């Protein structure tokens, strides 16, 4: 059974839980799934086993607490400690795939915008690679910091009796706003440095299309 | 942690291996069998970290199979290494339990 089928089966079976057990199990599920370094297949397999167990126990009136104990976080940590780590070979294509996807779409949007705007306004299609790299670095840093921060926020809301989420939402919004402001300031005030070249709308569209097409081809090849 | 669960902790791996040796079981079945044997103090969830560890050490292996009641379950089988480990644990336990029994229950008359 592959990961996707397990996740779908998990979603289906979770609906059979009582509201109380569902809340209990979901905390466990989110906490363990947030550990990205673990092998995805093994993670989903053990989550399915725990869910099956909880469902069988539920039929004779047992709760999640009866089965997995009072210290759910401690229990989840025990499970995590025993799960095998995912191999770096799996992680690298995943991240590089995301980056290539973003770059591809950016180039296509840029090409398309320049094409549409050029009859109405003067478009500057000169590109300064050094400046672009600095901005990309700032954006990447912001994205990574935000993701880690939000994951920590989510983790903080788990395993609590009463949950008030608005505080966490405010915090997430705030870091988003600060990050965006930093990026816009960098873009505005960063001097254009280093060599430059013309990168016309059609070249931009073409490069973007090639990148997206090669991602698509690789996906198709990996399917079987 | 109660004294009983502390004592149990060290030998639980052996108990799990012994149940699996008799016939392949899935998680819920395993917990039921431990309960029926009389090891009621093991909180049911405890078996899963143990099962993961035993798999990691290649003493057991898991396989998806249809269960008696229908849906697929992950059944656990003892490997050759698992059989050897169970044998070793059984020997160690025999050597350990005899003097401890004599000391604690027999009153340690030969001391």
UniProtKB/TrEMBL annotation, chain A:
The keyword Transmembrane helix applies. Keywords: Membrane, Transmembrane, Transmembrane helix. It holds the Pfam family DUF1129. Signal peptide: none annotated. The chain crosses the membrane at residues 91-115, 127-151, 172-193, 199-217. It comes from the Bacteria. InterPro entries: DUF1129 (IPR009214). This is DUF1129 family protein. It comes from Robertmurraya siralis. The lineage of its organism: Bacteria, Bacillati, Bacillota, Bacilli, Bacillales.
């Amino acid at each position: 059974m592959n990961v996707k089928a397990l996740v779908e089966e998990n979603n289906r079976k979770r609906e059979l839980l009582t509201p109380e057990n569902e809340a209990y199990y979901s905390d466990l599920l989110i906490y363990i799934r947030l550990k990205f370094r673990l092998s995805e297949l093994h993670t989903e397999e053990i989550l399915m086993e725990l869910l099956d167990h909880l469902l069988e126990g539920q039929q004779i009136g047992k709760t999640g607490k009866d089965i997995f104990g009072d210290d759910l976080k401690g229990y989840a940590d025990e499970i995590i400690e025993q799960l095998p780590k995912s191999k770096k070979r799996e992680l690298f294509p995943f991240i590089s795939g995301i980056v290539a996807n973003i770059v591809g779409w950016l180039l296509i949007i840029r090409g398309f915008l320049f094409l549409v705007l050029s009859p109405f306004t003067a478009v500057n299609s000169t590109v300064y690679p050094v400046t672009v790299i600095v901005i990309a670095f700032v954006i990447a840093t912001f994205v990574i910091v935000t993701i880690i921060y939000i994951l920590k926020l989510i983790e903080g809301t788990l395993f609590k009796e009463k949950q008030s989420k608005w505080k966490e939402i405010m915090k997430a919004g705030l870091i988003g706003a600060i990050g965006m402001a930093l990026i816009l300031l960098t873009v505005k005030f960063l001097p254009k440095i280093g060599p430059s070249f013309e990168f016309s709308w059609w070249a931009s569209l073409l490069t973007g299309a090639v990148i997206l097409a090669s991602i698509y081809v690789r996906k198709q090849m990996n399917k079987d | 942690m109660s004294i009983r669960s502390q004592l149990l902790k060290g030998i639980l791996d052996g108990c799990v291996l012994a149940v699996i040796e008799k016939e392949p079981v899935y998680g819920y079945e395993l917990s039921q069998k431990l309960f029926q044997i009389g090891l009621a103090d093991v909180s049911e969830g405890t078996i899963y970290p143990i099962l993961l560890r035993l798999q990691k050490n290649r003493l057991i292996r898991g396989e998806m199979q249809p269960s008696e009641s229908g849906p697929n379950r992950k059944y656990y089988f003892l490997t050759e290494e698992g059989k050897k480990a169970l044998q070793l644990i059984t020997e160690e336990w025999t050597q350990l339990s005899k003097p401890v029994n004599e000391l604690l229950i027999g009153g340690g008359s030969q001391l």
